[in-house]
Design a protein that fits this description.
Blueprint: H1 4-10, H2 44-60, E1 63-71, E2 74-85, E3 88-95, E4 102-106, E5 109-114, E6 119-124, E7 145-149, E8 154-156, E9 159-168, E10 175-180, E11 187-193, E12 199-210, E13 229-232, E14 235-237, E15 245-246, E16 254-262, E17 268-275, E18 280-287, E19 299-303, E20 306-313, E21 316-322, H3 326-335, E22 337-338
Parallel strand pairs: 6-13
Antiparallel strand pairs: 1-2, 1-12, 2-3, 3-4, 4-5, 5-6, 7-9, 8-9, 9-10, 10-11, 11-12, 14-16, 15-22, 16-17, 17-18, 18-21, 19-20, 20-21
């Protein structure tokens, strides 16, 4: 059975939100002064304020460190350097094992460096990854989740941290356990949990420095890219409903974007991205290629917290991918409908 990560590569994306080009699909997190209240009783609005503080810390602090992402039996470490100056945010992320990759960000402009192809992929979008967490404006999380602070403190990368549980109110999403620096609100660790409290993946700092100890020269790329090919991803905003698609959203999920992307051999693939503030789902719709139809894997595929569900709808493949339970994706795809527009309607 094809692994979910292989499906991601085929669609031009790899791994989780903070992991690599096209779908930098960050995780959940929390902490704020309000946590000095009763240890296990945080009101939803207070939880939202906590999330805002953690998000703001990821965007406004100077920090540098090495973090490890574990998904099932796969582990990958990366180094991040983040600085804020008169030009705004500057960030560099480099993988430390596996295939070399670098990601250079200046505010909303991202360069994804692929050394073996001497290629730079440009994207212009908000590029938040760990230790950031919110998707969209994140304002609706108080509905799908409850936020509670545990009584026992944690420790990550030599730093004490406040442990916070983000508990889903239904079966459509996972829960999260977060470890947040109580002094500066920086997220140090996040684990994704099933309803049975089983850890399905996690990302955590192994080492981190904050403030004036961060060295600006660490933002410089390890590669000389002056003669590399530059490719800017092309996408066009679309309205899938006007194209005849009816795609149900799981409770609490709102549409973030609808675009058409040019993929391999010039094929246009429609993409819908939805989020509940913490979790994200991408839905890809592509015409069926009769030459490769028999090789396409249908049904559920899984890798850690990342699930994929693919099914045929008319003359199209619909593939839903996200860090949500497989049943959430299955129900959504199986309930989706396509009603081709007549010539008169187009």
């Amino acid at each position: 059975m094809m692994k979910a990560v292989q499906v991601g590569k085929r669609l031009g994306l790899v791994g989780r939100r903070w992991t690599w080009c096209y779908m930098a699909v960050s995780l959940a997190v929390l902490f704020a002064p309000a946590l000095h209240a009763a240890p296990n009783d945080i009101e939803p609005d207070t939880g939202w304020v906590i999330l805002q503080k953690v998000q703001q810390a990821a965007r406004s602090l100077d920090y540098s460190g090495v973090y490890t992402y574990q998904q099932g039996t796969v582990m990958q470490s990366s180094r991040v350097t983040h600085l804020v100056d008169g030009t705004g945010e500057r960030e560099r992320i480099e993988t430390l094992d596996g295939v070399p990759r670098e990601f250079l960000r200046q505010n909303d402009s991202i360069q994804c460096l692929i050394p073996e192809r001497k290629l730079v992929i440009l994207e212009r979008r908000r590029g938040d990854r760990f230790p950031a967490l919110l998707l969209g404006d994140g304002a609706g999380i108080s509905g799908p989740y409850q936020v509670t602070k545990t009584a026992t403190p944690g420790r990550v990368a030599g730093r004490d941290c406040t442990v916070i549980d983000v508990i889903p109110n239904d079966k459509h999403r996972y829960g999260y356990r977060l470890c947040v620096d109580p002094k500066n609100h920086l997220l140090l660790k996040v684990q994704t949990l099933t309803v049975d409290d089983v850890i399905v993946d996690q990302v955590l700092f192994n080492s981190v420095v904050v403030g004036d100890k961060v060295v600006a020269s660490d933002l410089n790329s390890a590669w000389s890219i002056g003669d590399w090919k530059v490719l800017e991803t092309s996408k066009v905003n679309i309205d899938l409903a006007k194209k005849g698609w009816r795609i149900p959203h799981p409770l609490g999920f709102q549409t973030i974007s609808q675009v058409s992307r040019s993929m391999r051999a010039g094929m246009q693939v429609n993409q819908l991205v939805m989020a509940d503030g913490l979790a994200a789902i991408s839905v890809f719709i592509e015409p069926i290629d009769t030459a490769t139809e028999s090789k396409v894997v249908q049904g559920v595929m899984q890798k850690g917290a990342m699930n994929v569900f693919r099914a045929r709808i008319g003359d199209y493949w619909m593939t839903a991918l996200g860090e949500v339970p497989a049943a959430t994706l299955r129900d959504m795809v199986q309930q989706a409908e396509y009603v081709p527009l007549s010539v008169h309607d187009q």
